[in-house]
Amino acid sequence: MANVLVVGGGFAGVWSAAGIVRTSRGVTNPHEQIRVTLIDSADDMVIRPRLYEADPQRMRVPLDRILGPIGVRRIAATVTAIDTDARCVTALRRDASVTELAYDRLVLAAGSRVVRPRLDGAQYLFDVDTMPAAAELHAHIESLPEAADTGGRFTAVVIGAGFTGLEVSTELVDRLQTVAGGQPVRVVLIERADTVGPELGEGPRPLIIEALAETGVEVMLGVEVRSLSDTGVSLSDGTEIPARTVVWTAGMRASALTEQIPGERDALGRLRVDEFLQVVGVPNVYAVGDTAAAEAEPGHVVMQSCQHAVPQGKFSGVNVASDLLGLPQVPFAPDPYVTCLDLGSYGAILTVGWDRAVQQSRAEAKNLKHSINAEWIYPPVDDAATILRHADHRTTWPTAALG
Known about the structure:
Helix content: 25-40%
Number of helices: 8
Strand order of the largest sheet: 7-6-5-2-1-8-19
Largest sheet: 7 strands, mixed
C-alpha cells in the first residue's frame, strides 16, 4: 500500500487527490493500491476567487462532501514541518496534539498568502485573502450605518490596482451604496505604479479605465500609503483621506511551507517543477497551484489563480498515481490562458491569450464571469462517479473554446 499525502484543501489539492483516486481505480493488485490522505486546517474548500463579493461565508464547500465519497482520508491539522529526506510531515491537530505522517509521495498544494505591509497602523487594514479576513470585512461594512459619523464613514480606500484591487474597488461601490442609505459613498484606488492593472497589459487597459470612471472609483497613481489610523489614510504625496475602510490587495507569496522543500524557488516563493509537476531535484515531491512555478506554455509560467490550479491538480493526480503504478506520466498542458475581470456595475472584461486581447466586455463578459464564479469552479459533491469524472485531466472549461 502506497501512501500519498496531499497538503492543502484548495482547488489544486482537492483535484490532485481526486485525480490520484481516479487514475488508481481499477488496479486489481492489492499491493499496488494507493491510499490518499489530504491534510488541511479547515473543514471547507474555500471558493477564494469570490471572496471580494458580499457575504463571503457562503463561498465554501465542505471537504467531506468531495473527499468522502471517493475514499480520500481527511485530517484537520496544520502542517508545521516537512522532512523530504525522511519522507515525513509533522502537523498540529486542533486538540494541540502533534502527529507525524509518512509518505511515499507528497503533493504540496498549500496555496499562497497576501503579503501584508509593515506600516504604521497596519492593524487597520482589511483584506480578502482568506475566509476569516473576507468575513471580517463584510461584518465591518454591515456595521457602518451604526458607526459614528466622524468623516469617511462610507469611504473606502483600496491599495493596489492589480486584478484583485480592481475587482474589490468596483464591487465596493455597490456594497457601500447598499448600506449607506442614500448617503454619498466614495471609493479610492491607490497604485504606486503609473498605471492601473500594470500586470494586465495594454489590451484591456482602456476598458478598465472606462469601467473605473463609470463606476465612480477614484484613481490615484504613483503614490503609496505611508500610515493609517482607524479614521483615515496618509499618502506619500501628503494627501490625507478620511476613510473607515481600507483594503490591502498588493502582493502575493507562496505558502511558507515551500521553504521547507530543498528546491529552487521563483520571486513569489513558488517551487520550480518539471513538466510532470514534480519538484525539480526533489524526489517523490510534487507541487501544484500557488506553490508551483509550472510552465503553462513555452515562455509563460502559470498564474496564481484557480484557472491554473485546477488543471495542475488534475495533472498531478494522474502523474503521482502513474509514478507509483509504473504507468506513463502526462506533461502538464492547461487550456489556453484567459482572463475574466469583474468590474462591478460596469460588467466585466474577458481577454484571451498572454497578450490579453479583449474578446468580451460589459454585460456579455459579466454573464461569463457569473458562470465561472457560481458554477464552473465549484466541484461536484456527494456523487463519487461525478467527482471522479470531473477529475479527468482531459476535461476543459467552456472558455477553452474562446482561445
